[in-house]
Amino acid sequence: MEPAGAAGSAPKVVLEAPDDASGLADMLSQFLEQTVTTSARKAGSARALRGEVVFRAQEDDQIAVRISFQGDQIVLTDLGGATLPGAPTIQGGFLAVAHVTSGQSSPFGALARRELTVRFSPSQLPFLVRVLGLLRLEGEAPRRLRLAWLSLAMALVATLAAWLWWSR
Amino acid sequence: MSAIYSDAWYDDMKALINGSPEFRKQAPRQRVVMTLEVLGDGASPYVPQGQDVHFLVVLEEGAVQEYRPLPERHDGKGLGFRFTAPATVWESIAAGGVDPITAGLRGQIKIRGDMRFLMQNADAVKILVDLYGKQISTEWPKGKPPYG
After folding, report:
1. Do residues A25 and A76 make contact, with C-beta atoms less than 8 angstroms apart?
2. Which residues on chain A are in Cβ contact (under 8 Å) with B114?
3. Is A21 near chain B, with CB under 8 Å?
4. What is the pLDDT of residue A106?
5. Of A28, A30, A58, A136, which to mutate for an interface test with B (greatest number of B Cβ within 10 Å)?
6. Comparing A19 with A150, which gets the higher pLDDT?
7. Domain definitions of chain A by residue range
8. Domain A4-137 carries which CATH code?
9. What is the pLDDT of residues A62-100, one digit of tens each?
10. What does the mean pLDDT of chain A come to?
11. Per the CB < 8 Å rule, is A98 touching B122?
């Protein structure tokens, strides 16, 4: 793994109210910090992201975390049972999320098996794909999964183009 | 049958985990050192308030090599993971009354370590914590959780 630094410093990962944080928020915070501080590529990807995404635990729907990508920092906030209208939401069980982030299963397979549920608007698709790409561990995706990601990216571009064309 | 936190209980736990073909299949081959910290919370009759129980679990070659109590808190050198929770939480998990994954997601168990490694080995973690929660042979000489 290449060290962070060449592509600029890693964004700061901030966990709000850490003493009262849920385990999901705490683990996501550590995961993001470890990801962006050990890879210059991931750090660059994270710095380029702007927007919010919500992760909700399938095991307990009173556990949800908002991740706000702000360029120079990533802020994690516990939402509890609250929803965040307008923000894309990913809901899944611990194992499903772990399998997808570690490259052991495809996000599409997890969606098809309903292990993951994703809610988003068409305009949020590119952001969501980039977030999922950031969370995916480097060097873990086998070739067929990388091809699947490429196919998804192409499909998303086509969907977005069609949506933009229809909404003219 | 062994009483919780007794020497025999640690041996039984090691044997229980190493007897799981599923765990042997999923467990990482490399050496992983972790510590579990059981904090006295005033409710557990086994760990008095203000006192802690610490134990060490060492995995290597797909098996538990060490599962033993520590005389004091691990100093962190060479440590991969630290799992910390009140005694009532650990004991409720051991008695099968609380799901360990949900307890972790709620923050009842504090986890410190390489989360990327944890994600890569999530199946082994799940089997390990499930085994911890299915210790039907554990004895509870001072009563079993939930504590009144």
Report:
1. yes
2. 34
3. yes
4. 86
5. A30
6. A19
7. 4-137, 143-168
8. 3.30.1050.10
9. 999 999 999 999 999 999 999 999 999 999 999 999 999
10. 88
11. yes
Cα B25-A139-A143 angle, rounded to 5 deg: 90
Is residue B148 situated within a structural domain?
Answer: no
Residues B83-120: tens digit of each pLDDT = 999 999 999 999 999 999 999 999 999 999 999 999 99
Asked if the peptide bond before residue B100 counts as cis, ω within 30 degrees of 0, the response is no
Domain that holds residue B6: 2-132
Q: What is the spatial distance between Cα B40 and Cα B7, in angstroms, rounded to a whole number? A: 19
Total domain count, chain B:
1
Determine, for residues B119 and A95 on separate chains, whether the beta-carbon distance falls below 8 Å.
no
Mean pLDDT value across residues A142-165: 68
Q: How many CB atoms lie within 10 A of CB A112?
A: 10
Across the interface, whether the CB atoms of B115 and A24 are under 8 A apart is answered: no
A31/B116 Cβ within 8 A: yes
Complex-level ipTM beyond the 0.90 threshold: yes
How many angstroms from the chain centroid is the CA of residue A70?
Answer: 14
Report the alpha-carbon distance of residue A74 to residue A129 in Å, rounded: 17
